[in-house]
Amino acid sequence: MMERKARERLSAALEALSDDLLLFDENDRLVYSIDRTVDALPEGTTFEDYARLAASLMSEDGASRDAWIAERIARHQTGGVREQPLADGRWLLVKDVRLPDGSSLVTRTDITTIKRSERQSRRNEARFRAVFANAAIGMVVVEPGGLIAEANEAFCRMTGHDDPTGLPFAQLTHPDHRADDANQAHRLLAGEVDHYHLEMRYLRKDGGTFWGRQTTSLVRGDDGEKHFAVVMVEDIDDRKRTERELTMLRAVVEASREAVSVMDPEGRPLYANRAHRHLFGTPPTYRGHFAPAARALIDREIEPAFRRGESWEGVLDGRTADGHVFPVWQRTGVAAGADGRPALRFAFMHDHSGQARVAAELTKAKEAAERADVAKTRFLAAASHDLRQPLQALSLFVAVLGNRPHGPEDATLISRIQDSVLALEGLLNSLLDVSKLEAGLVVPNVETFCVESMLQRLAAEFEPITQAEGLGLRAVPSRALVRSDPALLERILRNLLNNAARYTEEGRILFGCRRRGSTLRIEVWDTGIGIPQDQLKAIFREFHQLGNPSRDRRQGLGLGLAIVERLAALLGHQISVRSTPRRGSVFAVELPLVARGAPARRPTQLSLGIGRRGACIAVIDDEPDVLDSTRLLLESWGHMVIGGPDASTVLDGVALLGRRPDVIIADYRLRNGSTGQTAISQVRTRLHAAIPAVILTGDTAPERMRHAQANGLGLLHKPVPPATLRATIDGILETASSRPSRSLRAR
Fold it and tell me: pTM for the full model?
C-alpha cells in the first residue's frame, strides 16, 4: 500500500513539472509517459514508433525525415542532449539518459522562449554590428585601461589608421584635450554621469588634426564591474572651420570702418555693424537712414534693383537719428539662398564727406597688404635653397636605408617613407616655383635654339617613369629652331608630361612637334581619364585637381598646370587643351618658329648611360647632413667618395688617396660666399684635368641652368631623387669612358 502511494505521489510530482518525460524499459518499450507535445502514447509503444511519431512534428520530410529517425534511434542508444525545432516554430531541448538497469529516460523541455530570446539577441547584435560598421560617424569600443577594442570604418577614415585596434584611445586625441577627456571619463566611471559630450581635436596618422564631437557612454557588465566604453565621434571639422571663418568675418566686419547693414528679402533690418551704428544709430527700416529726397531714388532705382537681384552703387543723402543730413556712399546687393532665390539684402556705406581720407587709408592698407604679400613670396623664393637642403639629405638617407638588407616589414615601411619623401619633394618644388613666379623673380632669357636635344632629354627622363606605370611613351623627333627660354620651356613640357603620366592608367603618351605657319606646336597626347568640357579652364587654377576629391597629397597640390600657364604667359606662348572624357587629352604650347640658317645655340645636357661601379667621386657641400647622406648613397652604389665643404678639403683628400676624381658633385652655394662653380674650377685647375662635374642647387632660377651650361656643367635641382642622381653619374661615366680625357694647363 505504501509503495503504491509513493508511486502516486511521484506521478503527481512529475505531472506538476513543465517538462515532458518518457520512461522506456530495457527493451525500449514505453512504461510511463508525461507527454504534452504529442497525443498520449499507450504503454508498450516501441521507441522506434515514438521516434516516427515525433518526426511527424518536425519540419523534415521524405528522405530527410527517415535520416532524422535513424539518427534519433542511434542517439537514444548512447544518450545525449539535442535542441530540436518543431514544424510549428517551437523548440525542444531533448535529453536521452541510459539508466544502469538498461532502461532509458527521455525528457523534453520547451525552450521556445529561450530560443526566441537568443534569436532576438542575435538580431539586435546584427543590427548593432550593421549600424557600427556602416555608421557615418566614427564609433569606437574602448576596453578598461583605455585600449581600442574595435573601431568602425568611419573612424578609420577620420584618423587615417587602417586598424587602430590595440592603440590607446588617448593617443589619437590632441594633447590639449586629453585632460578634459580623462576628467569626464572619471566622472563616467564613478557613476556621476551616464554619458558625456566633448568637442575636441583628434590626431590623424599623417600628423594632421581634425575636430570631432565626442559622445562617450559606459556599458557595464551584469556583475556591475566589467565594463567597456562606446565612443562616437562626429567629424565637425567643416563646422569648426565655418565657425572660425564666421567669427573672423564677424570680427572683420565689426572692426571695419565701412558701415554694413544686412536685411531680409523684404528690407527689414537683421544686422548692422559698429560703424553702421555709429553712422546712423538704429533706425527701424533701411529707408529710415535717408532724407526724404533720397527715398524717392530708393523707390525708383534701388528697390527694383533689390527685387531683380542686382547691385546698385551711388551717393544718397543720409540722415542721422538727430536729423543731421550728410552724403552717404553705398553699394547694395542681394545674396541668394541654396534655391537661387534672394535670401538677404546687404548694403555697404560710409560718410562720403570724408571720402578722400578714407580712400587714402584704404590705399595705404592695400599697399601694405601687397608689400607683405610680395615680401612673403620673395622670402619663400630666396629661401628655396635652405628649404631644399634638409629635404635633399632626407631623400638620400632614405635611399641609403633602402639599399641595405632588411626584412619584408621594414621594406614596406621604407617604401612608404620613400613615397612620402617623393610627394614632399613635388609639393615643395611646386610651392617654391609658384612663389618665385608671384614675386616676379623669374626673368626669361629668350634665344634661338633647336628643340631636338630637349625632346630627347625629356624622353629619356620619362621613359623609366612610364615603364614603371605600364605605359607606352613615344617621342617624335624634330630639329626645328624656335625662339624661347630653353629652361622655362623645358619646365613647361616637363609639367605637361608629368600631368599626362599622372592621369593615364593605361595606354600610351605621345609628344612631338607640328609646324603651323610661323609657329611650332609642341603637343603632349595621352590616353588618360580625360577632362570634362566645363573643367578645361578650371584645371589651370591653383590647387585644382580632377579625380582627387580626398586631396591625397601624393597626387600633388594641383599647381603643375598653374605653373605651366604662368610660364607660358611670361614667355608670350599660347597654351591650349582639348580632351574627351575617358579617352584622353592633348595639351599644346605654341611658340615662334625660326627659319633655318639663323644662329642657334644647341642646349647641352649630360647623356645617360649604363651604370658603372668603382668610380672616384668628389663631393663638395658645406651642409654636413647633405654631405654625409650623399657619401653614404654613393658608397652604397660601389663608388669611392672624397668629400668636404670646399675645394681645398677635397684636394687634400685627393692627395691622400692618390687618385684623381672621375666626377665632381658640388652644391651651388658654399660657405663664405663661394659657389660650387668656383670650387669645381679650383679642383680642375689644380689637377690639370677637365673633370666632368654636376652642380646641385636648391635655387630654381633659370640663370643657374644657363650659367651651368655655359661652363660645361650638369645641373640638378634639389631635392634630387636618388634615381636621377645615379642616372646622371652613370651617364657621365659612360660618356667619359668613350672618349679620351682632356687636360687643363695650370694657370
Answer: 0.37
